[in-house]
From TrEMBL:
Its main location: membrane. Residues 31-70 form the Leucine-rich repeat-containing N-terminal plant-type domain. This is LRR domain containing protein. GO terms for cellular component: membrane. It comes from the Eukaryota. It is a single-pass type I membrane protein. InterPro entries: Leu-rich_rpt (IPR001611), LRR_dom_sf (IPR032675), LRR_N_plant-typ (IPR013210), RLP23-like (IPR046956).
Length: 188
């Protein structure tokens, strides 16, 4: 009887060993560290947040966090829309070290800074939504480095409140041609 179980036990052991890599779509440690560092540097209301406030609470695996999508343990989509994020987003943000990002949504927040030039580091982006996010000033020419970008949304609503705010804090694109944006060498 024990000899007939041996082949099944052997096959089961092999299948179990094969399934471990399949299950290991877990967030890579450095990806999770970058997300947590970014979260620490963002200003947001814990009571209003539906995503950021829950990171690292429900699951220690960042691939299961609200607003985060992964492939092979790497963050490829980040949706932080409507999180009530305020303050500045600057070039030192660990966000710009998430090099596998293909989709980034920071819409409907309250940033009060220029769009950081390090946005050009996210060269895999094909979707970037910064609509109604409070960014101001010149759109950085580093946006032209986003060669895979298909969708760029910088729109604002045209209601009464936002019109008043836009009078003082408007995004600008001077000489708006991609030729101008891409023709000058960029300093590192």
């Amino acid at each position: 009887m024990s000899t007939s179980l041996f082949p099944w036990h052997f096959i089961f052991s092999i299948l179990l060993g094969i399934s471990i890599p399949v299950v290991s779509g877990r967030c890579l440690g450095h990806q999770q560290a970058l997300l947590l560092q970014m979260r620490r540097n963002l200003e947001f209301d814990d009571q209003m947040s539906t995503k950021l406030a829950k990171w690292n609470v429900r699951s220690p695996d960042c691939c299961f966090w609200e607003g985060v999508s992964c492939e092979d343990g790497r963050v490829v989509e980040l949706d932080l829309s409507n999180e009530g994020i305020s303050g500045e987003l600057d070039n030192s943000s660990s966000l710009f070290s998430l090099h596998h990002l293909r989709s980034l949504d920071l819409s409907c927040n309250f940033f009060s800074s220029m769009i950081p030039s390090k946005i050009g580091n996210l060269t895999n982006l094909n979707y970037l939504n910064l609509s109604n996010s409070g960014f101001l000033g010149q759109i950085p020419r580093e946006v032209s480095q986003l060669r895979n970008l298909v969708t760029l949304d910088l729109s604002t609503t045209n209601d009464y409140e936002s019109t008043i705010l836009l009078a003082a804090n408007e995004l600008k694109l001077e000489n708006p041609t991609m030729k101008v944006l891409g023709s000058e060498p960029l300093s590192a």
